[in-house]
Amino acid sequence: MTAERLLRALADGRTHSGEALAREFGITRAAIWKQVAKLADWGLAVDAVPGEGYRLARPIDLLEAAALEALLGRETVAHLGRLEVFTELPSTNRHLLANAPPAGSLDVCVAEFQTAGRGRRGRRWNAPLGSGIFLSVGWQFAEMPAELAALTLAVGVRRALKRVAGLDIALKWPNDLVFDERKLGGILLELAVEAQGGSHVVAGIGLNIALPPELMPQLSDWPRGAVDLTTALGGEPPPRAALVAALVDGLAALFAEYPATGFAAYRSDWRAGDFLRGRAVRLDEAAGPVTGTALGIDADGALLIETQGGVRRRVVAGDVSVRSSA
Prior knowledge:
5-stranded antiparallel sheet, alpha+beta
């Protein structure tokens, strides 16, 4: 008996008696209780109803590898190498970075719960099991493409959410997903340059789907905090499997096309959703903060800032935040 088996039994959100569960799994009711404690470690709220049994506070549409593959486009499947779904994993990005696929092959890793999820600059990124999407997609470029630094900006999360959920989101340079001036998710692009000239790229996407309200302030230090897709849509979001498949399809097309198209094919989409353009911003650098107005991005995806002294800065890396109007 494992916590994963109990999770699948309770995923429907209905009440299951401890006696029936013990009989089904061939263990004692005390052993069932021990596995319930593991579910709590995953951030799940389990209601123990006296005289009735156990139920999750909300049902979970658990992800399955076979079901995900069935939703992928034909061209994506043609490139597909590994597609793995884990109940628990330290980090989907780290898992894929450990083994590069052959050139032109796509690796996909999804975790229901991450114990060491990261955002930019090593910031912790975590959420209860099944409450979001933790997805990484890996690709091996035979040769390092030009404008590789802009690849993060080309990841088509905005297109996928518009197509599957009908939601327009904004993009905060270089990798944040924004709705209603709150953080909906983020992108973490990591790469390893190969000795023979190629590059192994892993794009990680974290997306809030249905979070407990009390957790929102802990997930973001933005003034208005975090938001999830359920709140953004004002109701039930699309199945997570449909969202994951759309994201993977978009990344598969991006990786296959990028050596030929570069960032140019994606620049207009980024600019249409640019969250920072025209806003007063603060750039934190080692030498001290710089304040000014964001002017958008240039042809290579660098952020342009006009400082308060009237100097135009081109920023290729850094931590940028919106300044308060107060």
